[in-house]
């Protein structure tokens, strides 16, 4: 690791500040785009199945590149990686901002993603090596405060910009900030790195890309194509086979690209399982609530963004609090309470009606975010705490990769469930309406009835998807009872090296 950021009495706050600013704008950019999708569809004359690739393509590039970050962090300095990441992100932002056709906009988003994929694992790794285990919860908490501020202001800012300006202004707004961060990093980041004799195994990169990319593409396509489409099941099958091959190959390499040995540490394996399951449930709120609010209730983008704001603020402000509580209490009690709240509030979201009040939605979402704030960072930090320092790049890369995959799987499952159940409910409601119809309805009455059935069917489909998310969250709740406070494990490589040194010393004597 870099000489300048090895653990010392004083953490490298300057480097961390620059990295956090860079990570903040990548987070902000992601949340800015969600509310803009309907405007992009209208302006570029594209459908939902096409525009969703602005999100899916971003996740796809992340899923392919994040596994390589363990290698990149070991090979290159923080300065070089940061400048490359923020440079790619800035280039992608400029391309997207001037896009007049969808393929160019998608290309810009994917270039952005190539920079974003490097940024988060790099920041997490620097934080892990900069703070001792007993102070890591507090440090991660303040990191979370800054990172969660982006989702807090993103939707509201996006709603305001969309109502007053063209959607391209979202990218033009980010571009000068990205350029300033690039210049700050260029002049202020000065860390150096000794030459490291490590090479990337390109066949592993190919298998990783086919594995994670295939899974992400297949599951992301399921919502629009259906599970019986070759465009869905062929990539998933290819992804599974490639991933198995990739894992087997990594276990045989002396220096694997992504070390699956991190799962030998039980707390890391458990924390990864909990965060993956929670990620799948978390996407229900991020995905289904905006559909309900804008499509069924007809609430404006600005008000939809404001609805999410209190929950995002709670998530942001609670992050340093839960970080300090984690240092004192450990992760188990926080995870159990937080997942209990998350499961209950997700269940109440499965009881939405056509008359659910705006205030009820705001409060319920804020309480749900309060529960989630007690889980994500403490559970993830507890798992990483058990790893020897040599495994930090692999642990952070593994966590970020699994988050992308579980997010895509959760999105696909919930969208597919919502779509299928909406069709089922629509057929049942139409049949029931015909049974109770008296006389021949007029064309206007028939059109109004069809609209009411469509709205009611979609509402029930969303409720069914939230109910499925409740079950998913309850799985994470049960797993939380098995959490134990993690202590850093001994590095088997160091034990082996020290053993050889001891043997040599004894032989010499």
TrEMBL record:
Presence of the UniProt keyword Kinase in the record: no
UniProt KW Cell membrane keyword: yes
Membrane-crossing segments per the record: 12-33, 53-73, 80-102, 114-133, 140-162, 168-188, 200-220, 232-248, 268-292, 304-321, 333-350, 465-483
Sample GO molecular function, one term: transmembrane transporter activity
Domain Major facilitator superfamily (MFS) profile as annotated: residue spans: 15-488
GO cellular component term of the entry, any: plasma membrane
Keywords annotated in UniProt: Cell membrane, Membrane, Transmembrane, Transmembrane helix, Transport
Membrane topology: Multi-pass membrane protein
Subcellular compartments: Cell membrane
Superkingdom to which the source organism belongs: Bacteria
InterPro entries registered for this protein in UniProt: EmrB-like, MFS, MFS_dom, MFS_trans_sf
Family: Belongs to the major facilitator superfamily. EmrB family.
Stated name of the protein: DHA2 family efflux MFS transporter permease subunit
Organism: Bacillus aerolatus
């Amino acid at each position: 690791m870099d000489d300048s950021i090895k653990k010392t009495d004083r953490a490298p706050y300057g480097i961390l500040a620059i990295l956090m600013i860079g990570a903040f704008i990548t987070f902000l950019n992601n949340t800015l785009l969600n509310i803009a999708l309907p405007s992009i569809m209208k302006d570029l004359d594209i459908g939902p199945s096409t525009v969703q690739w602005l999100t899916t393509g971003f996740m796809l590039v992340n899923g392919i590149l994040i596994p390589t970050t363990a290698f990149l962090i070991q090979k290159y300095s923080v300065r070089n990686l940061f400048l490359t990441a923020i440079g790619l992100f800035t280039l992608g932002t400029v391309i997207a901002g001037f896009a007049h056709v969808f393929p160019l906009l998608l290309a810009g988003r994917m270039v952005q993603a190539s920079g974003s994929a490097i940024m988060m694992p790099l920041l997490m790794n620097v934080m892990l090596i900069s703070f001792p285990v007993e102070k890591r919860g507090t440090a991660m908490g303040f990191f979370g405060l800054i990172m969660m501020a982006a989702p807090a202001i993103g939707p509201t800012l996006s709603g305001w910009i969309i109502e007053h300006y063209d959607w391209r202004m979202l990218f033009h707004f980010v571009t000068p900030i990205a350029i300033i961060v690039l210049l700050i990093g260029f002049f202020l980041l000065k860390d150096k790195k000794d030459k490291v004799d490590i090479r990337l195994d390109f066949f592993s990169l190919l298998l990783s890309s086919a594995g994670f990319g295939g899974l992400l593409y297949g599951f992301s396509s399921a919502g629009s194509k259906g599970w019986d489409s070759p465009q869905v099941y062929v990539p998933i099958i290819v992804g599974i086979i490639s991933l198995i091959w990739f894992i087997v190959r990594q276990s045989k390499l002396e220096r694997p690209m992504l070390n699956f040995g991190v799962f030998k540490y039980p707390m890391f394996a458990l924390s990864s399982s909990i965060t993956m399951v929670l990620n799948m449930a978390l996407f229900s709120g991020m995905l289904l609530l905006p559909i309900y609010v804008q499509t069924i209730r007809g609430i404006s983008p600005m008000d939809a963004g404001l609805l999410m704001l209190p929950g995002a603020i709670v998530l942001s402000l609670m992050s340093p609090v839960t970080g300090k509580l984690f240092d004192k209490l450990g992760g188990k009690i926080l995870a159990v309470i937080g997942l209990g709240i998350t499961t209950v509030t997700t269940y109440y979201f499965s009881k939405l009606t056509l008359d659910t009040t705006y205030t009820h939605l705001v409060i319920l979402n804020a309480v749900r975010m309060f529960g989630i704030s007690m889980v994500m960072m403490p559970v993830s930090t507890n798992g990483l705490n058990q790893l020897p320092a040599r495994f930090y790049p692999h642990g952070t890369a593994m966590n970020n990769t699994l988050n992308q995959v579980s997010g895509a799987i959760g999105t696909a499952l919930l969208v597919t469930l919502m779509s299928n159940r909406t069709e089922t409910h629509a057929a049942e409601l139409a049949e029931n309406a015909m049974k109770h119809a008296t006389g021949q309805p007029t064309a206007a009455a028939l059109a109004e009835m069809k609209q009411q059935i469509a709205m009611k069917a979609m509402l029930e489909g969303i409720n069914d998807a939230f109910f499925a998310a409740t079950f998913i969250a309850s799985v994470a709740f049960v797993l939380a009872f098995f959490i134990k406070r993690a202590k850093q494990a001994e590095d088997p490589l160091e034990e082996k090296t020290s053993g050889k040194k001891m043997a040599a010393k004894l032989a010499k004597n």
